[in-house]
Each structure stands twice: as C-alpha cells, then as structure tokens.
Amino acid sequence: MKFKKLLLLVVVFLGITACTGSGDNFKYVFDGDTVDFQGSVFRIADSPNFRGSLALTPDSGMTPSNASFCLFMGYEKVQKKLNCEIEFIQYNKDDYWRAVTVGDDYADLINANMNTIFEMYNFGYVLPLNEIETINLDSKKYGTPQMLEALTWKGDVVAAYPYFWGAINPNFDNGLWFNVSLFEKLRYPTPHELNERGLWNWSALEEIGVLCIDVSTPTRTYYLATLNQHFVRMMMLSNGGEYFKVTSTGRYEYGLTDGKVVDALQKTHELYRQGLFYEYPGSDDLDAKVFTDGNAALYCGNSANGILIERGYLSKNMEEGSFLWATMPVGPNGTGENVGLLSNTNQFICATIDKGRDGEGLGLFMEELFKRPVDDDWRDTFFKANIKDLISQEIFIAQFENPYFDKVIFACQDDSLFDSLYEAARTGSIRKTVEDIKPVLMSALEDFIYD
C-alpha cells in the first residue's frame, strides 16, 4: 500500500511539473497550460508557385477584409504568444527533399503535394501526426474527419489539411455567384428563394436559361453562366457523381462511366447547345467579366483562401448587394443537399522528423499555429467584406465548415482529366471520353494507392 501511495505521489508530481525540450536552436518550457519556446525558430517549407503561400510581411494596402493580412496577423500573434520565430523557406516544386535533408534549411513543416509527402513518409522523413501526443486530431483544425481519413497512409495520419485561423488552405471550387439585378429583369426567383422552397434544382437552371434566351435582343445576349472546368465539375458533384467509387472491400472502382456523371455532362452539353454559356478563351479570372458586366445570371469559379474573391476581377467589380453567393442546384440523382464547396487541392501540411527536436514541442507549436480564434472576429469581417448579404454568408460558412473532399482525385490530379471532361461537355462526346480516360486514371490510381 505504501508503494502504491508513493507511486501515486510521483505521478501527480510529474503531472504538475513543467516539461522541457531542447535541441539545436530549439528550446521550450511547457507547464501544462502555456508554452515558452525561448526564441526557437520554426521553419515552414513552401513552393513559390503555391497559390496559398503567405509571406510574413503583408502587402501594402491590405485591410482586415483581406485573408492574407488576417493570416499575417495570426502569425504575429503566434510568434508573440509562444516567444518563437516563424521563418518561411521557399522551394521549387521538385526540390522539397532539401527541406528534410539539408542542414540549416531543414523545415519543421512542409507544404507539399500528396505524392511528395507519401514518398517522404516511405523514406522515413515524415512524423505521423497521430504519434504527436500534444496535438488533438479531433479538433477539426487539422482537417475534417473525411479529410484526415483521406490523408491516412499505412495506418498513419501523414499530413493535415489545416484551417489557418478559420480559412481552409489553400483553395476550393465555390458554388455559384448570381446576379441579383439580372434575376430581377428575368422576373424569376433567386437561387436563395428557390433554395428556401426546396426548388433550387436542374429544372430551375433550365428555366433560367429559357428566360435568358427570351429576353435577349440582336444587340444584347444574356448568358446562363460561363462554361469552365469549375462549372462542369460542380455539375457532376451536384448530381452525386464521383470519380471513383469505394467497394465493400475498400478498393476503388472507376466512377466516371456511372450514369450520374454521364447525366451531368449531358445536361451541361444540352445547355451549351442552346447557346447559354459564355466561353472565355483565356485561363484567368477574366472569365467572370461577362458576369460582372451584367450579362450572365451565374458564375462559378475557383478561390484560393478567398484570394480570387478579394483580389480577382470578380471582387474588383463587385458592388454592394449586386452579386450574391449560392450553392449549386441539385441534380435528379443528387443527395438532396445543395453542394457548395469542393476542396480542390493536392497541397497539404506534413511534419518532419528532426533528431534535434522532439515531436511534442512541434505539436505544441502546431496547436497554436492552427488554432481557430475564439475572440477574434476577422473571419466574420472577411466574409462580410467579400460576401455581401447575410443569407450568402450563412450558406457559405455552413459549406465552408465541411467541404466535399475526394481522396483519389487529389492523389491522381491531372489537368488533362479536367480538360477532357470540359471538352466532353462542350462536344457531347461523353461516352467515348469517359471510356478513354478510364485506363489512364486507373493506372495512376493503381500506381499510387496499391503499389
């Protein structure tokens, strides 16, 4: 009995004694509540062409409505609170190995694509997040449960898809923006009104298209939307279409030949044949011009941490209340839930193994780095500055918290895949296209998942 009491006293004593860690340029003291890194430097490796990259110095003219400025302020708070420094190291896409093998350039966290991270994991350079006792993977700040499942490799959570102070990193496809004044001209309920009645579906999309044709004149044409890859992909998703289907044994089967996908591509093609889509020859966000000029009812585009919204052509030409945000209309084979956000990235955060540091200390840093603010209202400020009405904000935030995430598409992401699907929607060569894509995509899947 005396031994048990003594053991209990030792356990209690250890529980209330501060933990310390040390290594080359890495020291900290943790008392169970606060941590002091005593000036330690944390390095984050990133690619210079990564759209979600954020410098530690904000651009001139940034305001609290700008996501990059808000994240910069977040970095500043972390450095001050933890008594540490954050340093960014930029690498070219194919040079990430330096971040885990080269002396002073060694990185604690790496922003890289899934293939690179899994390769580094196989060579023993990645510290599995589930082995870091000081982080809470259930907190959702490292990604939704669906995302973390997708980032699990050989039983280990090898990477995170973090929320930087409430902003998903780095990008996603949004649903639709709609032109309020044009809907008034068409005398047709807005997507918000239709959604409230449970009528925001493909039938409504067709009716809007008919009205766009009816009100056009020889000198002015109203378009339903811009036809781009984003619109095509979101139409597929709104009808329950998937690139791959998971079998009961956990294997992946090709999904693009499924009727849900084929129907979505066919419906898009039918609308295209009616002349309802505007086609922009370039690849930048100027494809939104026809929408912001008031000549299209809808616009679907890509957003990187809100950067398109805040810096792109769309935002520069937005007026208060002119363009509002909505989810996609539901297809006949959809789940009945409106689709708003499709996460569109193969860039993730991984932790590295460094003999001069310990994972517990890195975990304490990550917990604060990816902490979602309780008392800061910058996210609301950002949303209100870029999404102008309360209904749009409510819809966006609800979708923002749980975007759709497809594991395999990001593992095997290839622009030619999206180009092919886009062309199929234009030309109507749908069956042939999805059959032609199959061997290429399945081969990539086999190499990546099952090799």
Give an overview of the whole structure.
The strands form eight sheets. Strands 5-4-6-22-7 form a five-stranded mixed beta sheet. A three-stranded antiparallel beta sheet has the order 1-2-3, covered by helices on one side. With 451 residues, the chain is α+β, with helices and mostly antiparallel strands. It is built from 19 helices and 22 strands. α9 crosses α10, α10 crosses α18 and α18 packs antiparallel against α19.
Could you give a short account of the major beta sheet?
5 strands, mixed
The multimeric state of the shown protein is single chain
Query: Could you tell me the mean pLDDT?
Result: 75
Helix content: 40-55%
Total of helices: 19
Q: How would you sum up the global shape?
A: globular
Q: How is the largest sheet built, in terms of strand order?
A: 5-4-6-22-7
Query: Approximately what portion of the residues adopt beta-strand conformation?
Result: 15-25%
Low-pLDDT segments? 1-17, 49-62, 165-170, 304-311
**Separation of the first and last Cα atoms:** 56 Å
Layout of strands and helices, then pairs:
Elements: H1 2-16, E1 19-23, E2 26-30, E3 35-36, E4 41-46, H2 67-82, E5 85-90, H3 98-101, E6 109-113, H4 114-122, E7 126-127, H5 145-150, E8 152-153, E9 156-157, E10 163-164, E11 167-168, E12 171-173, E13 176-179, H6 180-186, H7 191-197, H8 202-214, E14 225-226, H9 229-238, E15 244-246, E16 252-254, H10 259-273, E17 277-278, H11 289-292, E18 298-299, E19 302-304, H12 307-311, H13 313-316, E20 323-326, E21 342-343, E22 347-352, H14 359-369, H15 378-386, H16 390-400, H17 407-411, H18 415-427, H19 430-450
Helix pairs in contact: 9-10, 10-18, 18-19
